[in-house]
């Protein structure tokens, strides 16, 4: 299908016009030009700016969160990428507090639905004063080379599980809109495995758990067309010269077209008002317009396999609420969720995810106690108001934080490892045989040392460091450890050869699970290598 190529051709063909419009705008804004002080000059400059903005391609915005207030003190905020995969980076908003704080770890799973994670800038900003925040930064599919493989809904779920393993116990996950389904599925899969790193809470906001409840125009479109129509009409190959050349994708410009067509009159009015604000010299209103549309018009492509599987699973077949959703060859059974408290949030005027669609998650989590469930509907807000804006800051975010603080493991007075052991008799009857093949006997390890599990949060606690003792060792000297793996080890608190050389079997198991590289320590003989290297630096 050549539409993507035509889109690129049109963008290139308009480049001279954009350049001419930009030069004309500068000419009529120059204070040395007498026409710049006339209504005619301001109209020409305003028209040129509007023309340039509606024909440009908008790049990925920045979060731009430079500081926050923690405990009444302004502290700097630094963005660090702490976990990488071909289709996603995990960003940590590290607060420059003087003392180590016991704030909850929150993993914000941003939607992979056309816009960048920066759409949740306001979400992160409101959480930062009271939480240690991480966010999924999904990568534009057209920027991922074909050689990096596929990415579908199953991979999305695996990414979430891997990130929760990386962050460790007592993590809280917040799924905003589209990720609500894979987040719920990921927690169900982890509970089915008796995973000790299952999150303490999950908050699902404006997510399409069951789109048969109060269906919207988006839901009706999916049901009326069928998956074959989407496969024929919206899947296209990335054109040259993008890095993802030849990858099948659902283009971001098509998603943006769909978004804007739902409220086309509102967008046309906004651009008319923008033109008039420029003519009047209302710089504040014009800047607000730029800030909003710089974000709104910046879109990314989705892989075709992820898009089609999501449409079919969530919007056409309703596999999750019907109990038919699969993760690979494993059924996704939400009734297995027993340890993760559930909060759902909806907007009264949401025209994308209908009222009740997110709340449906409570019925699916049938074995979760009532005191671990909560639902909140925010009056007079639409879809974006659920996670952004004044209502989010003043009314929704405080409720989310209160729920998280109420259900965090430290508030319950239970160590996560002990909690995992306590849950095992409940699930041991059925999942154990299926689990033997996929996981290297985590249940055996946990049962072998019940006393240690109840007194220590993590077997690794004995060796992990907050910072290196002196100069950190070059862990890349160990065969099998590259720059990314060294960064992951440092992020987990391992900086020196002696830490690896002294690993015990329970610590190896915990490290394998935490950093998601099961078997590599034994396969590449890290311990023996580390012992020899430690002798050279001692």
TrEMBL record:
Q: Coiled-coil annotation: which residues?
A: none
Q: Which residues form the PHB de-polymerase C-terminal domain?
A: 206-406
Pfam families assigned to the protein according to its UniProt record, in alphabetical order: PHB_depo_C
- NCBIfam families, A to Z: PHB_depoly_PhaZ
Q: What is this protein called?
A: Poly(3-hydroxybutyrate) depolymerase
What species does this protein belong to? Roseibium suaedae
Taxonomically, what lineage is the organism?
A: Bacteria, Pseudomonadati, Pseudomonadota, Alphaproteobacteria, Hyphomicrobiales
